[in-house]
Design brief:
The longest helix has 15 residues, at about 30-40. Helices cover about 40% and strands about 20% of the residues. Helix 2 runs parallel beside helix 5 (about 130-144). The chain has a single domain (about 1-144), classed as Dehydroquinase, class II (Rossmann fold). The protein is an alpha/beta fold. The protein has helices spanning about 20-25, 30-40, 55-65, 85-90, 130-144, and strands at about 5-10, 45-50, 70-75, 95-100, 120-125. Bound molecules: 1,3,4-trihydroxy-5-OXO-cyclohexanecarboxylic acid. 1,3,4-trihydroxy-5-OXO-cyclohexanecarboxylic acid binds near residues 11 and 101. 1,3,4-trihydroxy-5-OXO-cyclohexanecarboxylic acid (DQA) binds next to loops.
Length: about 140
């Protein structure tokens, strides 16, 4: 069975509480539970993690090099400026899908730029929790 790592970056532990008008009212735990069910349907194994720390996310990306077949990544605000995360993605040569709950292009100008998009295989944003399931499906298909 293919193994997919789902990584959430800073402040995503507060989804459900944080700006519900932007990120929705469902908690990250509820979103994760739905994603685990969907993974069973897709017959892929998933491991979901969250950290508010850039270095932790980088360590997990390095771990993915040997332990996982692909990654679904919501890097939160790091998306817009972390060259270190971008380099980690480029270093591991595994398929990574960038996801965002919100449509970052319809928001503040600083969110229009992603420094990680060029090293990801694709980007899904603006579909709320479905951004994760769409990415999981795309990655599962790609890994078949
Ligand atoms: C986000 C969008 C980012 O701009 C923001 O900093 C986040 C969440 C999203 O999922 O919509 O923390 O990645």
């Amino acid at each position: 069975m293919k193994k997919i790592l789902v990584l959430n970056g800073p402040n995503l532990n507060l989804v459900g509480i944080r700006e519900p008008g932007v990120y929705g009212k469902q908690s990250i735990d509820v979103i994760n539970a739905g994603l685990r069910e969907y993974a069973k349907e897709l017959e892929v194994e998933i491991d979901i993690r969250q950290s508010n720390h850039e270095g932790m996310l980088i360590d997990w990306l390095h771990e993915a090099r040997e332990e996982f077949d692909g990654v679904v990544l919501n890097a939160g605000a790091y998306t817009h400026y972390s060259y270190a995360i971008r380099d980690a993605i480029a270093a591991i040569s595994k398929p990574i899908i960038e996801v965002h709950l919100s449509n970052v292009h319809a928001r503040d100008e600083f969110r229009h730029k992603s420094v990680i998009s060029p090293v990801c295989i694709g980007v899904i944003c603006g579909f709320g929790k479905n951004s994760y399931s769409l990415a999981l499906k795309a990655l599962a298909d790609l890994l078949k």
